[in-house]
Amino acid sequence: MKCDMHIAVCDDNIADRKQTERLLGRQSDRFFKENGGRLYLDSYGNVEALMRYPQMYDALFIDMTSAEPTGFEVARLLLNVGVVRPIILVVSSIDYRKQYAESGINVPNILFLDKPIKVAELTAIMDEIRKIKGAPTPTMEIRSKNGTVYAKNDEIVCVKKKGAELFIYMEDGNILSIIDDIYNFYDQCAVFPQICPVNDNALINVNHIQKTSFGKVTMDNGEVIGVSFIYRNSISQAKELINNESN
Is the peptide bond before 108 cis (omega within 30 degrees of 0)? Predict the structure, then answer.
């Protein structure tokens, strides 16, 4: 079965980061030969950039040693924002295994890999990541005025932009309000292929469409949203993406 994966590397040692990128690139070649899947890699040298949209990744390789937060604290941050995919602490000058054992944290998605990275050990880690991909439920952090919500699966029905605010209509009937650009929010929705734009000020979840008519869609919560001409193919493309990921 085809299995695309999105991987993040966060390492403040430039040489080590480049080496990890090269090794993961070879894994990408192996994945393609075995099942036609692609491995997409994003590489970071600082935590702030990584923490923008960490939920979009299928796995995250972390080793930060030169400044706070160091690797294990980064793992804590990722857990705190709802990351359920594998977090691989790559052990170099800091003994992450010891820190993990002493922390009292007991979660299944913390893994360890030693530097210098051995190809066989990386291959075993990647096979484990591929095995569990799709088992944990991806989540998306939404920091609204009334608190933080971790949206899962089809919990987002649609999103409307009004002025500087985005109003996020949830499956349970709640409406969350945040200050954000709709394009930035759509980027964060990468974990949910069922969400697509239908005009410059609205996103919809195609799994919540009740009825489609000329120039508009009616959602199952009763919201009627216009579909602009330039976005006329977005719905079909989202449905195709969902089908491809399920095959």
Answer: no
